[in-house]
Amino acid sequence: MDAVAPRWIEWAARAASLTALPSGLWRIALGVGVPVGFSGELADLYKPGWMLTPYVIVLTLVAEGLAMLTMGLVRPWGEVVPSWIPFLGGRRIPPLAAAVPAALGSLAVTVITFIGAVSWADPGAMGDPDAPHGVAGAVMTACYAPLLAWGPLLAIVTVAYYLRRTRRPQAVAA
Q: Where do the structural domains in the chain lie, given as residue ranges?
């Protein structure tokens, strides 16, 4: 196994893995019928049912699962395939096999969340008169705001992973 990740990188990985949790909890609340502030046509559009409820649950599980993959960049299972996986168990994971998807994911999440933040108040989003306003709007905003940190945190952890896995040990001077 390669060098252990510094403690602050572990904390960054943990933080990245938790950034999707507040928005996921908000979405699940929406999906199970908790009033989250939508009114008018949007309230009708976002009614729990056979389409919305499974969609928000699956979206939340996928987003949180992807966010949790950040932990693989600071854990042994991000360096060596766990032994219980058939045919691959025990094999070292090439650094680029983890770093490239993580870097692309970081870029994608950063772009998506930046675009979402820039257009948050647009008429087709929170600027819609039927969108949550007041306390409900503040709660929704607070739940989605942590997503802005996901991409940058993932980028930091990815660079640290790559450097840790590819850096040659320095010779000790005698």
A: 7-164
